[in-house]
Design goal:
By secondary structure, the chain is an alpha/beta fold. It folds into 2 domains: 269 residues, Rossmann fold, CATH 3.40.50; 85 residues, no CATH class. It is 46% helix and 15% strand. The protein contains 14 helices and 10 strands. An 8-stranded mixed beta sheet has the order 1-2-3-4-5-6-7-8, sandwiched between helices. The chain has a two-stranded antiparallel sheet with strand order 9-10. Strand 2 and strand 3 form a beta hairpin. Helix 11 crosses helix 14. It is globular and about 65 Å long. The two termini are 34 Å apart.
């Protein structure tokens, strides 16, 4: 089945004046936000930012300096996008990349000025760092997290400097940031927004989605999840999400390159899989059984154990596994009695939530 790379072969020669901005364009621009544009894209917001084709030329010069195969894949996508007539004249500005371990914040964004005189504000999703993933977990008990506040400030800063209509979007956590920024930016800016795209990003707790600011943007929200979505089913979605076919299985469907494309749209499925429904119900029942303080305590302990292994990046967990597993075991043994009790209680609630979900499914 075709994907976003095939879309560039099919539609790359067709300009926005010939065929309007669509959901596949959104996903491509959202993935581009993962690229490290340091020393290439200006930090200032300007409609006369660096054109795609020039940014691509500069990236290709340094592509071999990146060790991450994922980053190289994104750069290959960008190279192909920049050579397509549809995107070549798009311009990049406002690049921001902020990482703060102490504040548990990982935030990055870039603004793309399109040839239809609109601007797409693209927020980066979670990177592989423990800090990035912990901030995602923090969303279960804290709203807003620092990255959400920063996303709102970023969107407002872009809007002040750039004239015209706005779109915003992102993949994974980037989608959540786009929705939060679109909902809680100033009303005068929100009225300029044409669409907000959440590509398999987490939702929000009910206290957020019931706010009038959130409701005001809800008709402009477009949420896409693969049929076995896990990340995108976390927390609540006020908007109606659309299910996209993926060629991968399980959590690997989170990969945007696995989403099936036909023409100018995704290939859609009627519903998410039973496994995704099971995980969705189980996790939500589990979280509902914990107080915000209990959720925070659990997340803090979980990540303190991971940090005890000496890793800063999830990919490192697969290296020297025996020693890391030994360190995790020692960290668990060294927990005080109260913390051990809390961990056991939390895990028991997770098991109970899974059992309740199975029981309900058997009665249907």
């Amino acid at each position: 089945m075709a994907n976003i790379l095939d879309y560039l072969d099919w539609r790359g020669d067709i300009t926005l004046s010939q065929s309007a901005f669509n959901s596949i364009d959104n996903l491509i621009l959202s993935v581009i936000a993962y690229i490290p544009f340091e020393n290439i894209v200006p930090e200032a917001f300007t409609a006369k930012g660096i054109p795609f084709h020039e940014a691509s030329r500069q990236l290709q010069k340094i592509q071999n300096t990146f060790t991450s195969e994922r980053i190289k894949q994104h750069i290959d996508l960008f190279t192909k996008t920049a050579s397509a007539n549809r995107f070549a004249a798009f311009r990049l500005s406002g690049y921001c990349n902020h990482f703060d371990k102490n504040q548990e914040t990982q935030f990055a964004a870039v603004t793309i000025t399109c040839t239809d005189n609109t601007h797409f504000v693209a927020f980066r999703g979670t990177d592989a760092t423990l800090v990035g993933w912990k901030e995602d977990f923090n969303m279960s008990f804290m709203t807003p997290v620092p990255a959400q506040r920063q996303a709102c400030r970023y969107l407002e800063a872009a809007a002040r400097k750039l004239w015209g209509k706005l779109r915003t979007g992102g993949h994974s956590k980037g989608g959540n940031l786009a929705v939060y920024a679109g909902a809680f930016c100033k009303p005068s800016i929100q009225r300029r927004i044409l669409a907000v795209y959440n590509n398999d990003g987490p939702g929000f707790d009910e206290s957020i989605i019931t706010k009038p600011e959130f409701q005001a943007i809800s008709k402009k929200l477009f949420s896409f999840v693969p049929q076995s979505s896990i990340v995108g089913m976390l927390l609540e979605h006020a908007e109606q999400y659309t299910v996209v076919e993926s060629i991968n299985r399980g959590i690997a469907q989170h990969d945007p390159y696995s989403w099936s494309v036909l023409g100018t749209d995704f290939v859609y499925k009627d519903t998410i899989t039973d496994t995704s429904k099971f995980l969705d119900t189980t996790i939500k029942n589990w979280l509902n059984g914990l107080t915000p303080q209990e959720r925070e305590n659990f997340v803090d302990v979980l990540f303190s154990i991971l940090e005890a292994t000496g890793v800063s990046n999830f990919s490192e967990l697969s290296t020297n596994w025996f020693q890391r597993a030994k360190t995790v075991g020692e960290a668990l043994k060294n927990l005080d009695a109260e913390t051990k009790t809390m961990i056991l209680k939390t895990l028991k609630l997770l098991v109970d939530a899974a059992a309740q979900t199975i029981s309900k499914q058997l009665r249907i």
